[in-house]
Amino acid sequence: MAENGGGGCCPPMDLMRSEPMQLVQLIVPMESAHLTVSYLGDLGLVQFKDLNSEKSPFQRTYAAQIKRCGEMARKIRFFKDQMSKAGVLPKEMLGKENDIDLDDVEVKLGELEAELVEINANNDKLQRSYNELMEYKLVLEKAGEFFSSAHRSATAQQRETESPRASEDLLESPLLQEEKSIDASKQVKLGFLTGLVPREKSMVFERILFRATRGNVYIRQTVVEETVIDPNSGEKAEKNVFVVFYSGERAKSKILKICEAFGANRYPFSEDLRKQAQMITEVSGRLTELKTTIDAGLGHRNILLQTIGDKFELWSLKVRKEKAIYHTLNMLSLDVTKKCLVAEGWSPVFASKEIQEALERAAVDSNSQVGSIFQILRTKELPPTYFRTNKFTSAIQEIVDAYGVAKYQEANPGVFTIVTFPFLFAVMFGDWGHGICLLLATMYLIVREKKLASQKLGDIMEMAFGGRYVIMMMSLFSIYTGLIYNEFFSIPYPLFAPSAYDCRDASCSEATTIGLIKVRDTYPFGLDPVWHGTRSELPFLNSLKMKMSILLGVSQMNLGIIMSYFNARFFKSSVNIWFQFIPQMIFLNSLFGYLSVLIIIKWCTGSQADLYHVMIYMFLSPTDELGENQLFPHQKTVQLVLLFLALVSVPCMLLPKPFILKKQHEARHQGQSYAPLEETDESLHVETSGGGHGHEEFEFSEIFVHQLIHTIEFVLGAVSNTASYLRLWALSLAHSELSSVFYEKVLLLAWGYNNWLILIVGIIVFVFATVGVLLVMETLSAFLHALRLHWVEFQNKFYEGDGYKFAPFSFILTASEDE
């Protein structure tokens, strides 16, 4: 456990056991409550309990203040959205918000919102007018072209001939031309409408007009080349200018309804050419004025947004903090006098002094005449688990917590996982070339961690950045195991000395060790490079890695059982020591510990004994002679003793513990998990229904069945878990063979063609295959398998993982939250 190491506010970090916790009660005067919670949020070492859980959010004391903060948060989100659209970045906050008042912030936010809303409304009106005038200008230009061309055509025809026959069938003749021979009283006056219609609706629009008026219209359309911004929707659209000629008011009303249904914008138009030119001039002038006004408005809006951006982070943090403070205050209960607030919460034992200092400082700063009261409560409730981690250990602790949060002061697997996790990963990923690639990628993340920490990364990149130190350890161990395997992108290198073997003659290079003779000392570190490429490479490496996997697996499982001993000793459970730890150690090591010893003896002696045969017939025929499979004297006797111990250990695990627990329960009326605090008044004793360790009821059948399941799980798991560690051998072999295939079948094959183009393509394929398959997919695969070995094979020997995390009220967490 962590103990106060004299000097400094916090004790030395200790990951083996979680921090000792205490349930504290704070009685705070109303006038200093806000400042007290604020200072405790800065401290970040108190997890408040909700004492008003039976009340709805609207019935709580500070519901109005939370609503007020929520309204301010809405305004801040509105500003953020407006700045994002305008491309204005909020200025980074350099100072603190000590001098800023929430009331001033509320007033300022209200004024700025009103001003910004007014500017946006004016800008929208001006922009709509501008878009309408742009459409009007297009109508004047396009429809004017139609009228002027028709007028020119009619004038030319009138000059050519006096006879009307030449122009009877011409469509280009003016429709409004009055025939001199027709009596004025019998003339039909034609009207016309102009406007713009969306291009995708233009054909349907024309067809509907024709049918609605029974063909008594004449319509002309002209395509507008550039896109037009629609005044109503504000979106860009492709449109056509249309002119519709009609006769009569009924036809006109029908045309107006159809235009409205099709979203066609209509604009007034004069057939007088002089008036058309005058209107175009006027519209162009108004467009210039509107453009200037809009630009000035946008400039003013950008200046306003820039002003907001300068204080945005400060205001945002202030509002989030205030909202968090009031949410916390709502978890406090009112005293009967309604002059004090009572808070309860968990805090580490080492934080008592800092909490009391924060309470005193809040009382002084708020000019309270009465100080806050700090006292420790007794409880049987299970405290939260709190490990103080740093940026190096936090990722490993997250890996452990993903399986389950440690029970209060239970032994933490993270202490060993820091080393064993990257090591087991490296056993499966052993290649020092690939390890260097991983290390370079990780060093980039570590060197630029300050800059990257302040940026928003993608999901995958965020995970890689969070585990950068774990990946660094994985890459370093991969380099180490790669040197042992002597593989650099599957290529062996005699780094530490020349190979101990040489060819007897030129023919021995034909992939066999028969023609090799030992001419030097044994290769000093790792695998002799001469093994690579030989016919016996695969059988040799298979045997080596399989046996190595069993040794590593048995070692780690033994470590897990040893950790269960330290747990039992810490919680003073002699039953678990005598009837769980000792039988489990005997059972595992009588079988697989013995197998590990046989492997080491075989390596040391060079024996040809078949270990499969030894282990199988140890169970099937324990009294038979071993013959050539005997590795040491009296081996048969040793095997009989070990087999007997393994068989005896099973009932020792199963039977005694339930009966002893039953006897202990009968001997005591009520069990307590924690020793009483001498300085605590009896009136402050807190009884809680959840999480207690005392056994109000003892169900012997339930305990017995649980112990039976636990025993069967361990016995079967000893076999299955040992076999599970063979994944170390399988994945290591797969990684090595894949790397060899990419090197030989891609790179060397491309090199053999003596063609630069094929070589370049081969190198590109090799790089992509190495990165995509070996550095990404294989890394993920080895990571997941190492994760499984820790979660299942290692942690199930001692780790319960049924606790819950310490979640203190902290402004550091509040500041990092995204609204």
TrEMBL record:
One of its GO terms (biological process) is vacuolar acidification. It is found in: Membrane. The keyword Lipid biosynthesis does not apply. Residues 102-136 form a coiled coil. GO terms for molecular function: ATPase binding; proton-transporting ATPase activity, rotational mechanism. GO terms for cellular component: vacuolar proton-transporting V-type ATPase complex; vacuolar proton-transporting V-type ATPase, V0 domain. It is a multi-pass membrane protein. InterPro entries: V-ATPase_116kDa_su, V-type_ATPase_116kDa_su_euka. Keywords: Coiled coil, Hydrogen ion transport, Ion transport, Membrane, Transmembrane, Transmembrane helix, Transport. The chain crosses the membrane at residues 423-447, 468-485, 548-566, 578-601, 637-655, 756-777. Belongs to the V-ATPase 116 kDa subunit family. Essential component of the vacuolar proton pump (V-ATPase), a multimeric enzyme that catalyzes the translocation of protons across the membranes. Required for assembly and activity of the V-ATPase. This is V-type proton ATPase subunit a. It comes from Brassica campestris.
